[in-house]
Design a protein that fits this description.
Blueprint lengths: L4 E5 L4 H12 L3 E6 L8 E5 L5 H15 L4 E4 L14 H29 L2 E5 L12 H21 L5 E7 L2 E2 L2 H4 L9 H16 L2 E2 H12 L7 E4 L1 H12 L2 H12 L1
Helix pairs in contact: 1-7, 2-3, 3-4
């Protein structure tokens, strides 16, 4: 019971891996989950598909039985698909919701009974794309907007029990997420789609480092009064500020010019 216990999803690469390193170095007991076997000195790894409620429940139960408590959950696991709304398959649409939205929901649902006991924290990794609805990335934006919504609702529901919930919105970040994005031939949209995704991938690969994003999240995790929402990256904070004061039609025009 001496060490605080953190559970990080999507721990095998990118932001999740950098987070694990920081918490291990800081003396936390660190558990990480991913769908495939993974090892890191100081990390207790559990194979878990976050799109399965049963696996999430079993994972959390295993951790609490061993450690006696759970203090923090960071829902970092995520995936991306690309393409027009019209040509996105039902299978791909359901898959991205299973991972990005239901994965977050299932892990929160599994962990909340124990986080009430510890008066612990949840940090949900959303995206600036939840506020700017990007053409040919519509389902990614939709899943992250859904994460924003349940984070706010859960925060109101759990506040009387001492649970603190923060939603973080990173901007473009250089990770393996770019290479893992599901792509397709997009028919009549294909020329614009290819140009849009090319721009998106260029921005991602020239974006913030995953180490920097992890550093910001780590600081949030150690605050007594963590923020409700945290946008990561100065340019993105400015863009969100502009989105609040400028007409929606103008914002949509700018995003369209950038990405379609």
């Amino acid at each position: 019971m001496d060490k605080k216990v953190v559970l990080i999803t999507g721990v095998s690469s990118g932001i999740g891996l950098e987070l694990a390193k920081k918490f291990i170095k800081s003396g936390w007991k660190v558990y990480g989950v991913s769908r495939k076997e993974f090892s890191l000195d100081g990390l207790s790894h559990i194979i878990c598909d976050v799109s399965s409620l049963k696996q999430c429940q079993e994972t959390v139960k295993k951790i609490v039985e061993k450690e006696g408590q759970l203090n923090l959950v960071i829902n970092n696991a995520g995936m991306g698909i690309s393409g027009s709304i019209e040509n996105t398959s039902e299978q791909d649409a359901r898959k991205i919701y299973d991972v990005n939205f239901f994965g977050t929901f299932f892990m929160c649902k599994s962990a909340l009974p124990f986080l009430r006991e510890s008066k612990g924290k949840i940090i949900n990794v959303s995206s600036v794309a939840s506020k700017f609805y990007i053409p040919f990335q519509g389902f990614y934006s939709a899943t992250k907007a859904s994460v924003d919504a349940i984070s706010a609702a859960m925060r109101a529901e759990t506040k009387p029990y001492g649970v603190k919930i923060t939603n973080v919105l990173p901007g473009d970040t250089k990770t393996s997420f770019t290479a893992n994005r599901v792509k397709q031939d997009d028919g009549v949209y294909n020329e614009r789609y290819t140009s849009s995704i090319g721009k998106m991938e260029h921005d991602e690969q020239n974006g913030m480092s995953s180490e920097y994003v992890a550093k910001v999240i780590f600081k949030i995790a150690n605050k007594k009064r963590p923020p409700l929402t945290k946008t990561i990256g100065v340019p993105y904070k400015f863009l969100l500020f502009l989105a609040k004061i400028l007409p929606n039609r103008f914002i949509e025009w700018v995003v369209s010019k950038m990405y379609s």
